[in-house]
Specification:
Blueprint lengths: L1 E5 L15 H5 L2 E8 L5 E10 L4 E10 L5 E3 L7 E6 L5 E6 L19 E6 L6 E2 L9 E6 L2 E7 L4 H8 L16 E7 L4 E4 L6 E7 L5 E7 L4 H4 L5 E6 L5 E4 L9 E4 L5 E8 L10 E8 L4 E4 L8 E8 L2 E6 L6 E8 L2 E6 L5 E6 L5 E8 L2 E11 L2 E9 L13 E7 L5 E7 L10 E7 L19 H5 L4 E6 L8 H5 L10 H14 L3 E11 L1 H12 L5 E5 L5 H7 L3 H8 L8 H7 L12 E6 L8 H13 L4 E6 L9 H20 L14 H8 L8 E4 L2 E4 L5 H7 L19 H15 L3 E3 L2 H4 L12 H5 L5 H12 L29 E5 L5 E4 L20 E2 L2 E4 L2
Parallel strand pairs: 32-33, 32-34, 34-35, 35-36, 36-37, 41-43
Antiparallel strand pairs: 1-30, 2-3, 3-4, 4-5, 6-7, 7-8, 8-9, 10-11, 11-12, 12-13, 14-15, 15-16, 16-17, 18-19, 19-20, 20-21, 22-23, 23-24, 24-25, 26-27, 27-28, 28-29, 30-31, 31-33, 38-39, 39-44, 40-44, 41-42
Helix pairs in contact: 8-9
Length: 874
């Protein structure tokens, strides 16, 4: 195996960084949908993040001016927004959302419009407002001028639709072309809210691209509800002259199937990409070619990219051509193309690891995304100087807090695969890697099959790399035969009956090459994947027993049933297997892992959504029942109700990650421990069990670069240091109160000497945000039985002062803790000494003798002041 590239994100540079949690992965921020105003001065984009309370991701719009880069959040709330687009004059932003407009006046008698509608935002300020009211929503839109939109929307309900609704009939007729509502083109005049139907097509418009001058539009049309299933009736493309009303079908020979369009600024033509394949009609594996269409001449010209692999993702036009990302395996190559007539000249761009590009209309600036497998993505803005990205500055850095965490070192690796050809993949190192040692290996296999793992940072529910690297494992991500971005020959190499003949062998040979390097413990290897990655995972479990554990998410085991039940069953099987199950049933049996389940010895966890139509849910049932039948491998099957091919709900994503981690902890890492599922770790009962025999050294919990005491230092622990400190019988587990700051500092110095580790008081910066008074913990509110205000506190003061010192204290951990690995008594019991920035000391947090009222200025009495220790991790 040859090492190609090593990332700079060496974990050794971050020895004391924060540990990764499941929520770090699931609650990450994702940025997309970048749009620039025509003058190139303002950018709008979409940020999405999982909302734990709603249980699903929510997307909002953000704005930045390229001059000052200060970010402004434009939308808020529980509804998502998408597809932001500037008006030609840059004064307004139109976007799509399903939010409901505020109610005004009497309740409407008609049903409110459904689906997505167009809303506007004024850049000068003010609330967004609803613009369209199409009964079945808006599919997509474009600006024609500052007061006119071009909209693709479903036709209003027919009599048939209305009767079905009246009967509350939820029956479904499969591929019901007769009653499927057409999606047509409409002109929408903002002033007066007038809609005018521009087309009478009976099919469904799926995309619209308007020219900058508003005179032309290109539309893509789906003409068969079964097109995704068998690819027999292809989509068509129309060019609309919006002034004359004439519509012309383009590319009528069916040899070019456009997928995306970019109009030139002068509106004289447009560029588009289209897939190319050698198969007569199936496009499951292809390369993306690029074309230019001249409107006046009705002429299409193939752009010679000078690159056999074609386009990857990302093309942005310049006044004299375009900037493109070319398919180059795991790492795209960026290039600038300059047009002269019907030829284009390429100049390579030296900037590496570019994942996306957007150029301003004047061609002066570019915003691009850069990332590696070991470096989280960030957006940069730069001057576009010929083929150089000059004077680059950070434009946007989602998840910047990840800098505090250890990130696995990564490298691109190659090896000889199934046909002795070079195969490329990505290797992630364990966070605790030290040369000379062997580590467990987790093979993570991408889906597709015509997809690939790019050399880019991508943590997800399906592939949470850092959580496994944190457990001390190498991670291996092979781009096997059939993967995209490696050219047409590679993509088509598993078609026509060769499906799964090469892929699993590529993986095996890659694993062998890693073992040969002496870095892998061959007795500790696991494998996982989602979709096609799961299919290869399942195949491996029928071929070898060397993997000690497997995670299979939405993977096929029976190709005969998949042919009829999967949404793209016929096109997939005809392309990759070459025949239908009726043509060659023995081929389907031979290819289906279901008939080799008697060979599986690998403990397997299976995941499926109950509404999965891409890999139908019954595939999971067959897999589970077969393993259950033979009883040779432990198996667990988890279904996510209402979910499709990948769970979208927070609770389901978290369940998937945690269950899979626990499965690998048990069968690969050997770290699983028996837990009582009836015991909440943050509960008072869990704390009581921990405090039954508290050690002399306070227990600590890692929080970033430090470890904090799980509990406040107890009387028993403090007595071990200062024998004269009196401890009443049975109160060893109570927090030590009446402690001066000098006594607390002396205890930390003594503990450091005893243990050889550095213990100290926490700082206000470290603990200040955690030590907040809580009425749900041991404060005066708890004892009084109500929320105590300032006047009642004064009235109760004499009663408290008449008690013995510390009478209101409770054993540490008597109240619910905070966090997944909980800390206790942060909001009550004793106030705790911390060090301020100026070197002085202050007691922070709630105490049993004072109310939780955040507005109070009263301090804890001396006998209700204690401390907890902090231990430096290095």
């Amino acid at each position: 195996m040859r090492i190609l590239l090593v990332s700079l994100a060496l974990v050794s540079l971050l020895p004391a960084a924060e540990k990764w949690t499941v929520d770090d992965i699931l609650l990450q921020e994702r940025a997309s949908g970048l749009e620039l105003s025509r003058d190139g001065k303002v950018a709008v984009y979409v940020k999405s993040r999982m909302n734990k309370e709603q249980g699903e991701a929510v997307s909002h719009l953000y704005l930045k001016r390229l001059g000052d880069l200060e970010e402004v959040q434009l939308t808020r709330g529980n509804d998502s927004e998408s597809s932001p687009k500037f008006s030609p004059d840059g004064k307004r932003i139109a976007f799509l959302t399903s939010r409901k407009p505020p109610a005004t006046g009497p309740a409407p008698t008609d049903a409110a419009p459904s689906g997505m509608q167009v809303w506007f935002l004024n850049l000068a300020g003010g609330e967004p407002w609803s613009v369209t009211k199409f009964e079945k929503g808006v599919r997509t839109f474009e600006w024609l001028d500052n007061d006119t939109l071009l909209i693709a929307a479903p036709e209003d309900p027919s009599l048939y639709d209305q009767k079905v609704k009246e009967r509350k009939d939820t029956s479904q007729v499969v591929d019901d072309e007769k009653h499927a509502p057409p999606v047509r083109l409409f002109k929408f005049e903002v002033k007066g809210s007038k809609s005018t139907r521009l087309t009478a097509n009976a099919d469904r418009i799926t995309a619209v691209f308007a020219s900058p001058d508003g005179a032309w539009a290109v539309t893509l049309h789906n003409r068969s509800l079964a097109e995704i299933y068998d690819q027999k009736v292809k989509p068509v493309t129309f060019l609309h002259d919006l002034k004359s009303g004439k519509s012309t079908q383009l590319f009528t020979d069916g040899k070019v199937l456009p997928r995306g369009f970019n109009w030139t600024n002068d509106s004289k033509g447009f560029y588009f990409s289209a897939p190319y394949t050698t198969h007569p009609y199936l496009y499951n594996a292809s390369v993306n070619l690029f074309y230019h269409y001249d409107v006046a001449a009705s002429k299409v010209t193939k752009v010679d990219l000078g690159w056999e692999n074609g386009l990857s993702s990302g093309v942005s036009l310049t006044p004299d051509g375009f900037v493109a990302l070319l398919a180059n395996g795991a790492r795209n190559r960026a290039a600038r193309y300059t047009r002269a007539g019907d030829t284009w000249t390429r100049a390579w761009i030296d900037t590496e690891n570019v994942q996306a590009v957007t150029v301003t209309d004047d061609g002066e600036q570019i915003i691009y995304t850069t990332s590696t497998s070991g470096e989280p993505a960030k957006w940069l803005v730069a001057k576009l100087d010929g083929a150089r990205f000059a004077d680059a500055k950070t434009f946007l850095e989602p998840n910047s807090d990840w800098k505090k965490k250890p990130i696995a070192k990564t490298e691109l690796v190659t090896w000889k695969g199934a046909q002795d050809e070079q195969v490329e993949g990505i290797l992630y190192y364990p966070h605790n890697y030290a040369p000379g040692k062997k580590y467990p290996l987790v093979v993570m296999i991408h889906g597709g099959p015509h997809g690939h793992d790019p050399y880019a940072f991508n943590e997800s529910m399906g592939y949470p790399h850092q959580l496994y690297a944190q457990r001390g494992a190498f991670l291996f991500k092979p781009n096997y035969h059939g993967s995209s971005n490696y050219g047409l020959k590679w993509g088509e190499s598993i078609s026509g009956g060769k499906y799964n003949d090469l892929e699993w062998i590529d993986v095996e040979k890659g694993v062998d090459s890693l073992i040969a390097r002496g870095i892998i413990d061959a007795d500790k290897m696991g494998v996982m994947g989602w979709s096609n990655g799961s299919i290869i995972t399942i195949e491996l479990t029928t071929r070898t027993t060397r993997y000690k554990v497997a995670g299979a998410g939405a993977g096929d085991v029976n190709w005969s049933s998949d042919w009829g039940n999967a949404v793209f069953g016929d096109s997939f099987e005809q392309y990759y297997l070459g025949k239908t199950p009726m043509d060659d049933p023995q081929l389907y049996i031979r290819k289906s892992p279901l008939y080799r389940m008697d060979k599986v010895k690998t403990p397997t966890i299976i995941f499926f959504g109950t509404e999965d139509k891409q890999v139908p849910t019954e595939q999971g049932w067959q897999h589970y029942r077969a393993l259950q039948h033979y009883g040779q491998a432990d198996v667990k099957f988890i279904l996510f109700p209402g979910e499709a091919h990948g769970p979208r709900k927070y609770v389901h994503q978290r369940r998937k990650v945690e269950e899979e981690l626990a499965w690998f902890d048990k069968y690969l890492f050997g770290t699983a421990s028996d837990t009582n599922e009836a015991l909440k770790p943050e509960s008072a009962l869990a704390a009581l069990l921990k405090t039954r025999s508290l050690p002399q050294t306070p227990e600590t919990v890692e929080r970033g670069a430090i470890a904090m005491g799980r509990f406040e230092v107890t009387r028993g622990q403090f007595h071990s240091f200062e024998g004269s400190y009196k401890v009443a019988p049975g109160t060893d587990a109570y927090p030590a109160g009446g402690i001066s700051v000098d006594q607390a500092k002396a205890y930390c110095a003594w503990l450091s000497k005893q243990t050889g580790q550095n213990y100290r008081l926490g700082t206000e910066e470290e603990l200040g945000s955690l030590l907040t008074r809580s009425k749900n913990e041991n404060t005066l509110d708890h004892w009084a039985g109500y929320t105590v205000n300032a006047d009642d506190e004064a009235r109760l003061s004499s009663l408290i002062e008449g008690m013995a010192p510390g009478s209101l204290l409770q054993p540490v951990g008597s109240f619910t803790g905070a966090g997944d690995d909980p800390l206790f008594d942060l909001g009550g019991n004793v106030a705790e000494w911390v060090t301020k920035k100026d070197g002085s000391f202050v007691a922070l947090g709630g105490s049993a003798d004072r109310p939780a009222d955040s507005k109070t200025t009263t301090k804890a009495r001396p006998d209700y002041i204690g401390f907890r220790v902090v231990r430096d991790l290095k």
